[in-house]
Amino acid sequence: EPWFLAHGITAFGKDFVGWNKQKAVDLIARFAESVVINKKNIVGFDPQKENHIVDSHRDLLLKTFLSAGLSLDQSFTTAQGKTFLLKDLLETSLLRFEVNSSVEFWHELPWTLFSYNLALPYEYHWKNYRGEKFYLPQIYDYAFKTLEKENEDIEAWMTQQKGQFGKYQAKIFSHPCGGFHYYHGTLLFLRDENLKKNYHDRLKKQIDILFYRLEKEPLVYDRVKIVVELDFDRLAIQQLKFFGHFLELASTLEKNRIWKFDENQKKAVIQARKYLLGVIKRMIQRNTFARIDSVKLEQKQLFQDLVGDSCHAINGLRYWNE
């Protein structure tokens, strides 16, 4: 499954191997398809191929390859024997890029934004296959404004003490993995010091909201354990998802110098690491990982969460362990 292999690369790096000790990046590349857009032959990944989950989020595989440090000139071969370069996948993404107001568009945008941050200059502009023109700084700013809008309710809870903090399927909580990927894709461009100055106060507010969530969301899980008959695995994987993705995002913010944590924030990050290790220990004690084959057969979505969230947790833990 390319989706699972990609998460393995996220956890263990570009040399991660799959079956037959073949590199995961090469196994994934075999699922690439040749397509024609405007009489031009290009190569890309579909969300699914036959019964396999491939690019489960738009440009997830492109983002995975770039994050792992692969060169744009890295060569791959499809199952049909066609050779292509990583920069060909980037070109395909640019050609297919389009903006719309749908919820799905914003939910699928983070991996594309992250890829463009890594591979393209800030002032980049281009045309898609329809001839529509795009300018990267405008897209980054639009995405940042959307992050602010998606966090409006949490900001009100934080600054005005209006209502009780709770998770629900709307705003930032409706995004994949609670919006942590959206934070990643949206904020990475602010590793540029000059740009960061222009966004400083707005960025600070979004960081404050992030740490407010770190303070409040564990309490939600504690309430759930008391009032809801929720099986251990499902609740534990939700906690694994939250703390693992938080630590991964915190590492991105620090190592890219997007934000310098103050002493209280540093302590909160270390506490999040302790929480995560505690969750993992309980999962080991309850044989959650040892039962992964039966989970796959009985609860497919839970299995996917277990694999994906474990890989993100490993990625976050690696940085903070060091």
The low-confidence runs, each spanning 5 or more residues with pLDDT under 50, are none
User: How would the global form be characterised?
Assistant: globular
Number of helices: 13
- Average the pLDDT over all residues and give the rounded result: 93
Tally of DSSP β-strands: 8
Proportion of strand residues: 5-15%
Q: Tell me the strand order in the biggest sheet.
A: 1-2
Order of helices and strands: HHEEEEHEEHHEEHHHHHHHH
Main beta-sheet strand count, sense and barrel state:
2 strands, antiparallel
End-to-end C-alpha gap:
30 Å
Labels describing this entry:
322 residues; two-stranded antiparallel sheet; two-stranded antiparallel ribbon; 13 helices; 8% strand
Protein architecture, described:
By secondary structure, this protein is mainly alpha-helical. It is 61% helix and 8% strand. The chain has helices at residues 2-12, 24-29, 60-67, 86-96, 103-119, 136-150, 152-160, 180-187, 193-227, 232-255, 263-285, 292-298, 300-321, and strands spanning 33-37, 40-44, 48-49, 52-53, 75-77, 83-85, 125-127, 133-135. The strands form four sheets. It has a two-stranded antiparallel ribbon. Strands 3-4 form a two-stranded antiparallel sheet. The model has no long low-confidence stretch (mean pLDDT 93).
Task: Write a compact overview of the structure shown.
With 322 residues, the protein is mainly alpha-helical. The chain contains 13 helices and eight strands.
Could you outline the blueprint of secondary structure elements for this entry?
Blueprint: H1 2-12, H2 24-29, E1 33-37, E2 40-44, E3 48-49, E4 52-53, H3 60-67, E5 75-77, E6 83-85, H4 86-96, H5 103-119, E7 125-127, E8 133-135, H6 136-150, H7 152-160, H8 180-187, H9 193-227, H10 232-255, H11 263-285, H12 292-298, H13 300-321
Antiparallel strand pairs: 1-2, 3-4, 5-6, 7-8
